[in-house]
Amino acid sequence: MKQLSFAVGLSILLAGPVAAWTLDGDSSAVSYVTTKNTDTAEANLLTGLTGSVSDEGQAAVEVSLSSVETFIDIRNERMREILFRVADFPVATVTAALDMDALQALEPGATTEAEFEVSIAANGEETSYDTMAFVTRVGEDRVLVNSKAPIIVYVEDFGYSDGVAQLQEIAGLDSIQPAVPVSFNLSFSR
Fold first, then answer.
1. What's 81's DSSP letter?
2. N or C end of the chain: which has fewer CB within 10 A?
3. Which segments in the chain show pLDDT lower than 50?
4. Beta strand 29-36 with 5-6: parallel, antiparallel or unpaired?
5. Cα→Cα distances 151→54, 100, 179, Å
């Protein structure tokens, strides 16, 4: 089992070795699904990703929370201002310790499954989740990491309950579900 650890927070710390792999932000995204009024599900994206992985396997990815895309302009604005509070918390940070020997052993064209312990820190809070992903060595110098199953994130774990309640009231909704499935598609090259 390959062990990876992700942490989402306010800023990214890239002290240490020079990057061996660079995240391709144009080919990477984090997606999540929100559910309102019990049975209306809506897909959302975060596409403002940058990051790298060092030769030693230290990975760091920044997620710009202002890149949120709900496909409705006023909702994008409300998510930025009320939920994510991008004025105070503009960036979520994902860090990981990767097994570079296992990656190097993966032949181009091959895919393997990896189990991740995901530690997420956002809005001054931190919690951990278990997840699974597919790691594909697309070529000698390109790797894709895609979630096999979504991570179920609970808004109360990150102090987002008040923001969700405000969004519900503003939009005149009966409910917004507090459990949010989150998936990721990351592309790295060197």
1. I
2. N
3. 1-17
4. unpaired
5. 25, 24, 10
Q: Using CA atoms, how far apart are residues 119 and 88, in angstroms rounded to an integer?
A: 21
Contact 172, 123 (CB under 8 A): no
The first and second tokens of residue 107, run together, are 């032949």
Burial degree of 122 (CB within 10 A; 0-12, 13-18, 19+): buried
Neighbours of 51 (CB within 10 A): 24
In terms of DSSP bridges, do strands 5-6 and 179-189 run parallel, antiparallel, or are they unpaired?
Answer: unpaired
Tens of pLDDT along 71-111? 999 999 999 999 999 999 998 887 777 778 888 889 999 99
Domain of 59?
Answer: 5-189
CATH number at residue 54: 2.40.128.110
| Counted domains in the chain | 1
